[in-house]
Amino acid sequence: MELIRLEKVDFAYDGRPPVLCGLDFSLSSGQRLGILGPNGAGKSTLFMLCMGLLRPQAGAVYGLGRACREEKDFRALRREVGYLFQDPDDQLFSLTVAEDVAFGPLNLGLGRERALELVDSTLKRLGLAGFQRRVTYHLSGGEKRLVSLATVLAMQPQAVLLDEPSNGLDETRAATLERVLVESDLSWAMVSHDRALLERTCRRVLVMKDGILQG
Amino acid sequence: MNAFVAFLWLFLPWRLELAQGHAAVSYNPQGLVLAGLITLKANAIFLAVVALLGSSQINDIFHALAHLRLPAKLVSLFILFYRYLHVMRREYLRLRQAMAVRCFTPRSNLHTYRSLAQLIGILVLRSLDRSERVYQAMLCRGFAGTFWLLDHFHWQRADTVFCALAGAVVLALGLLQWGGPLWS
């Protein structure tokens, strides 16, 4: 099933040269895509367009097969596709880990009991059992990143957009992250500068260059 | 705090007398009593606040505010403010370190003022950007205006005991203050 499709998308930030020109991209369930590309090539921009956080100047965005133009069109898509931000401090805004991880499931309308179950099981999966009462801003950089992944996974999405997921993780934590992802039945698009990681975890690697995806 | 109270001790014991054409300052012992009273009250209030807030976890305080029916928007504002204050502080310290390793030493000159102004400017800009990204991250997780609270307080035995004791103390104080004639 097709989750996201971008068709002939142009995008430029205000007063700057275009980042994306006529880009086509699609992510279907079952796919695991890796995206390589130099800094500033528009990899994060691509994800933000997919999630409806930015709007393209030209072209169309389809979420779950429907054209998405306004904020409300993207809501259904965001239930199925999660987005892991580059900076975990952007993603963790609650005081305690449990609250942050429960935020998504509660927004989905799952009850308190179910949300707390998801918090426990997701944290355990990521090797973070017992982190529930920890205060988010006292976590180390690596812990923060894994907790932000937990906040995304707790919503039980079909697919995730991962923006440099292994950045700032030590070897053990990077291995945990890789294992959790590979063993899951998630689909994803993953941006990274680590070619080896992409080749290990993704079934197809694309390169972003001159505003389009190649490969 | 007692530094402020010290000023009261300095000024309260004197009385200014204005008569035709000349002013005189004279010693007034009543002022000392007043200063003593203010010192005791200020310290008592301070200690009570420290005992209450200092022994509570910050999340408990915010949750208590929410349960005391403070407007939800206000509570969210407090929580986000507290959460990102730390991020801002770290960013500020990092920028100061970055300035320090390039041999910046604050002096009273235009260069210093300009650099510090830029530092503040960049902090404001970054926090604007960050607030944008935090909001986006929340949208991605289906945020529709509700902040969820996980912790709920339950009335426990200890609460009953504490309330009874505290109530008794307050009652006793009241009796000592106003109830004198009853048993004298």
Task: Please supply descriptive tags for the structure shown above.
heterodimer; A: 215 residues; alpha/beta; six-stranded mixed β-sheet; four-stranded antiparallel β-sheet; 8 helices; 10 strands; globular; B: 184 residues; mainly alpha; 7 helices; flat
Write a structural description.
The complex is a heterodimer of chains A (215) and B (184). With 215 residues, chain A is α/β, with parallel strands linked by helices. Helices cover 35% and strands 26% of the residues of chain A. Chain A contains eight helices and ten strands. In chain A, the strands form two sheets. Chain A has a six-stranded mixed sheet with strand order 6-7-8-3-9-10, with helices on both faces. In chain A, strand 9 and strand 10 (212-214) form a beta hairpin. In chain A, helix 4 packs across helix 5 and helix 4 runs parallel beside helix 6. Chain A is globular and about 45 Å long. The mean pLDDT of chain A is 91. Chain B is mainly alpha-helical. Helix content of chain B is 72%, strand content 7%. Chain B has seven helices and two strands. Chain B has a two-stranded antiparallel sheet. In chain B, helix 1 packs antiparallel against helix 2 (29-54), helix 3 runs antiparallel to helix 4 and helix 4 crosses helix 5 (110-140). The two termini of chain B are 39 Å apart. The chains are: A alpha/beta (215), B mainly alpha (184). Chain A binds chain B through residues 48, 51-53, 71, 75, 78-79, 82-83, 85, 87, 89-91, 93-96, 98-99, 102-104, 106-108, 112, 115-116, 135-137, 151-152, 155, and chain B through 58-59, 62, 79-80, 82-84, 86-87, 130, 133-134, 136-144, 146, 148-150.
- Secondary-structure element pattern of chain A, one letter each: EEEHEEHEHHHHEHEHEE
Strand order, largest beta sheet of chain A: 6-7-8-3-9-10
C-alpha-based Rg of chain B, rounded: 27 Å
**Low-confidence runs of at least 5 consecutive residues of chain B:** none
Give the percentage of residues in beta strands of chain A. 25-35%
Helix fraction of chain A by DSSP (H/I, runs of at least 4): 25-40%
Give the overall shape of chain B: flat
Beta content of chain B: 5-15%
Mean of all residue-level pLDDT scores of chain A: 91
Question: Can you summarize the main beta sheet of chain A?
Answer: 6 strands, mixed
The SS-based structural class of chain B is mainly alpha
Order of helices and strands of chain B: HEEHHHHHH
Largest Cβ-defined interface:
A-B, 36 and 26 residues
The percent range for helix content of chain B is over 70%
Question: What is the multimeric organization of the chains shown?
Answer: heterodimer
Rg calculated over all Cα atoms of chain A: 17 Å
- Please tell me what the overall shape of chain A is: globular
Give, in spatial order, the strands making up the sheet with the most strands of chain B: 1-2
Low-confidence stretches of chain A: none
Mean pLDDT of chain B: 84
Q: Tell how many strands the DSSP assignment of chain A holds.
A: 10
